[in-house]
Amino acid sequence: MTRKADNVTRTGVLIALLFLLVQAFLAATAGFADLHSIAAHKLLHEEKSSTTLMSREKLGRVIAMQENATRLSSLNADYQLDLALLYQSYPETPATTGERQAAQTAAEHARLAVVRRSAWARAWSEFALARFNHSGFDNQVQVALSKALLLGPWERGVVSQVAWLAMTAWGQLPWQQQEEMSAFFLSAMQDPGFRQIIHQSARRTGWSGFLKRLEKEHGAG
Fold first, then answer.
1. Which 8-state DSSP code applies to residue 171?
2. Tens digits of residue pLDDT in 132-166
3. How far apart are CA 99 and CA 104, in angstroms?
4. Within the chain, what is the greatest distance between any pair of CA atoms?
5. Taking the complete model, does pTM exceed 0.90, yes or no?
6. Concatenated DSSP letters of the chain
7. pLDDT-derived band at 51, boundaries 50, 70, 90
8. Cβ(148)–Cβ(158) under 8 Å?
9. In angstroms, rounded to a whole number, what is the distance separating the alpha carbons of residues 145 and 109?
10. Rounded to an integer, what is the distance from CA 220 to the centroid of its chain?
């Protein structure tokens, strides 16, 4: 009986030690991931402070650092979205194989960000934009637009992206989504700050005339 109790005790101790080792490994991995991500952000900040544009070579170094962080902590939604944004920042030049691949990779990491944190409005708006840049308007973009609007109607960055994308792809939006977006624009423009954001998006997309008619039809403006 005593021997059996000793075996149970040893088993319990081994399980506890194994649990502690796993926790220590996970903590160390997360720490190393943070170091890579911090280094990437530091280099990116230094380049943004410079008066010259970041070269593809330096951007590649930043991406490599962030990829290391993401590999070490793939469940981290922030790392996934940071990587998506970096891939989206490739210089806007005529499409090449490399740029198409960058757009595809950006869309995939943005998708992983919303999988990791499904209530994150910014991740949904970035996924909608990244997916649109790679594949054009499709069902995934449609869903991401609605999710972003549902989760972050008070977030200025989200509203700006949603407005621009909705206006750019207006003719492809289903009728119900057009109605949803129109109602949101009219409601949001009651706030001066959001009004400015929506009108800026309208000017960028050549949508100003349509927006004025929308306001006139509903007695706004």
1. G
2. 999 999 999 999 999 999 999 999 999 999 999 99
3. 9
4. 87
5. no
6. -HHHHHHHHHHHHHHHHHHHHHHHHHHHHHHHHHHHHHHHHHHHHHHHHSSSPPPHHHHHHHHHHHHHHHHHTTT-HHHHHHHHHHHHTS---S--HHHHHHHHHHHHHHHHHHHH-TT-HHHHHHHHHHHHHHH-S-HHHHHHHHHHHHH-TT-HHHHHHHHHHHHHTGGGS-HHHHHHHHHHHHHHTTSHHHHHHHHHHHHHHT-HHHHHHHHHHTT--
7. very low
8. yes
9. 17
10. 32
Residue range 25-120 forms a domain whose CATH class is mainly alpha
CA distances to 122, 131, 159, 165, 184 from 153, in Å: 10, 20, 6, 15, 8
Q: What length does the chain have?
A: 221
Q: Which amino acid is at 40?
A: A
Instruction: Give the number of C-alpha atoms closer than 13 A to the C-alpha of residue 176, restricted to the C-beta side.
Output: 4
